[in-house]
Design a protein that fits this description.
three-stranded antiparallel β-sheet, alpha+beta, 2 helices, 3 strands
Length: about 150
């Protein structure tokens, strides 16, 4: 055979087969990776909100224990901390025990509890059906301190 009469052997199509299997693997793995990523963001934000609410409750309890403390001054501390964290419009609720901190006797315990519904804070990237946190979940922070004498 001369050079001009060479027999052409068809090339195997391994390149296309490899590309097709890579696309299939990506389609199988990508949803799982996305759910994990969104879950990390969601649970991280949950822990941030939980820590913020707990910190606000502790600061409020600290503001409630001086002899001159009033409910108004304690609410101002809570409002400032929640606003600094971007949770001022989250629909949080505050409860005091006793209900009027100015009437607590020296040595009595003062409890401040702040609660907010998870459905009211920010956006959520992962729905509860896929392992996310339910919108009805209550995030609560509470602190107890002893009232100071005058």
């Amino acid at each position: 055979m001369s050079n001009s009469q060479q027999v052409l052997v068809p090339r195997r199509r391994t390149h296309n087969a490899r590309r097709a299997s890579s696309v299939l693997e990506l389609c199988l793995v990508l949803p799982i990776l996305l759910m994990l990523s969104f879950g990390i963001v969601d649970y991280g934000y949950f822990l941030y909100v939980k820590n913020t609410v707990q910190g606000a409750a502790e600061a409020a309890a600290r503001a409630a224990i001086p002899a001159t403390a009033t409910n108004s001054s304690v609410n101002t501390v809570i409002t400032n901390m929640m606003a600094a964290a971007g949770l001022q419009n989250s629909g949080y609720t505050v409860a005091f025990s006793p209900t009027d901190v100015s009437t607590a006797a020296a040595g009595a315990t003062v409890t401040v509890t702040i609660a907010v519904s998870w459905g009211n804070v920010g956006t959520h990237t992962l729905s509860a059906g896929y392992g996310g946190i339910s919108n009805s979940k209550q995030i609560t922070g509470a602190a107890v301190m002893i009232k100071e004498s005058s």
